[in-house]
Amino acid sequence: MNKKDLRDHETEIAIAAAIAITAGIAIALMMRPKRHPLQTRALKARKRVMRAGEHGMDRARDLQKMAMKRARKGINRGMHFLEDLPIDDIGDQLQDYLDSAKEAIEDTITGELHDLQKTIRRRRKRMGF
User: Fold this and answer.
1) What is the pLDDT of residues 67-101, one digit of tens each?
2) In a 3-state reduction of DSSP, which class is residue 129?
3) Alpha carbons 36 and 43: distance in angstroms, whole number
4) From CA 126, how far away is CA 10, in angstroms rounded?
């Protein structure tokens, strides 16, 4: 074979390969399932919704972590506050207040009963009993 025949043979092989590739692409395009434009839009919308949901879940996890951190901080501050409270002194003061209130109520009731007894005696005297 001479150079010209060899070149023509290589050209024919390249053309046949190009035709085979083109035919393969055409067959693949014809065999693929056809989608309606609404299906395409629905798929894209579904992907967007899924991405938004994932984003929302990420934000919710971040907020949960932040809330837990702040809750722990608040608990620690509350515990320090409780440790600093003089609970025994508060109980003693409260007991003193309750005792003084009880005595004041008893004194008032005793005085009112005494006054009521006096009033009853006077009325009996007037009525002649």
Assistant:
1) 999 999 999 888 888 788 888 888 889 999 999 99
2) coil
3) 11
4) 148
Q: What b/e sequence results for 93-113 when a residue is b if at least 16 CB atoms lie within 10 Å of its CB, and e otherwise?
A: eeeeeeeeeeeeeeeeeeeee
Q: Which two tokens stand for residue 56?
A: 């929302």
3-state secondary structure the chain: CCHHHHHHHHHHHHHHHHHHHHHHHHHHHHHCCCCCHHHHHHHHHHHHHHHHHHHHHHHHHHHHHHHHHHHHHHHHHHHHHHHHCCHHHHHHHHHHHHHHHHHHHHHHHHHHHHHHHHHHHHHHHHHCC
> Cβ neighbours of residue 43 under 8 Å, at least 6 residues apart?
35
Q: What is the pLDDT of residues 5-14, one digit of tens each?
A: 777 778 888 8
Q: Which residue type occupies 123?
A: R
What are the residues whose beta carbons fall under 8 Å from the beta carbon of 101, sequence distance 6 or more? none
